[in-house]
Amino acid sequence: MFMIRRAIKPYFSHVISWTILLFLPFIGYLYQPQKLSELNFYFVQTHFLNIAFLATAFYSNLHYIAPKFFFEQARIKFFVLILLVLGIYIVMTYLFFRLNPEDELKHLQEKNILFIRLVFGPTIIYSLCILTSTMLFLYDEQAHQKELNKQIELEKTTAELNMLKLQISPHFLFNTLNNIRWLIRKKSEQSEESVMKLSEILRYIIYEVEGSKVEFSREIEHLRNFIELQTLRLPIEGNVVFKVDENIKNYLIEPLLFIHFVENAFKYGIDSKNAPDIVFEFSTLPNGLTFYSKNKILLKKANIQNEGIGLTNIQRRLELLYPNKHELKITHNDEYFEVNLKLILES
């Protein structure tokens, strides 16, 4: 039933408009019903036929002539058809007067207004009808084109986001497998635990982030698994902190927004000679959350400012997914690299 009402709704105004045009000449009889006996049946008949012809021309142009010929290079076909229908309408008007039993044609000739009544008047009425029909077609075409452009842009954005996700996963997998290989070479008892955590991480990436959004708690669990997996291979004990404010709502968020910063902190914040100092914090905002990351830079030779596709990747994703709803600040000096990301998740 809803689908039927939705299909009929755009044409409701059409029905009202044509009904008004159909009964407009007879409104006066509502106030003077005694004159109904004087109503000319021939006039009623010709008026109804005129409205029927104009309605046919209107919708023929709207649904067939304009869509097929208006945008053609040889637009002359459009105007030829419109003029041809106009000619038919003028001839039809002339025939109506010829068939008038009251000989109205002769009456008009005597008053010298035959041209106005048979040619000029019908041409104006028909032109207004076709102009309205063509404008309505152009409006619908413009709306359709806007919708098409939105759909194309959405598909483009979806494809780009999928590509960006795929760029994250192989890089993450490469680093994690290297970590497991390192544990196996050490014959560490933690090898099995690391494989289990990797399995959880891969399950999340492969099966749970296919949709547009995930629960914040699942993203936190994913990050916690990753951080625990990374801390298994620390050559020197140090400070690795992961804090999550308990008051943060379980928002639905885009997946894999923070993993790059976490990877980056371990990538540049661990070496074999110094104790790491790495901090990750999630805190609440009135309408969102804040992610803060800080790590001591232990790989001095690494080019932090141009650290590859990862930073560009996450910046691009934020622009696409949270336009005007995020603030990303990245600062660093010779000792520390800091990230502060604010997300607005409630409008």
UniProtKB/TrEMBL annotation:
Chain segments annotated as transmembrane: 12-31, 43-66, 78-97, 117-139
Pfam families: His_kinase (PF06580)
Signal sequence extent: none
A molecular function (GO) term: kinase activity
Keyword set includes Transmembrane helix: yes
Keyword terms: Kinase, Membrane, Transferase, Transmembrane, Transmembrane helix
Superkingdom assignment: Bacteria
Keyword flag Magnesium: no
Domain spans labelled Signal transduction histidine kinase internal region: 159-234
Protein name: Signal transduction histidine kinase
Organism: Emticicia oligotrophica (strain DSM 17448 / CIP 109782 / MTCC 6937 / GPTSA100-15)
Taxonomic classification: Bacteria, Pseudomonadati, Bacteroidota, Cytophagia, Cytophagales
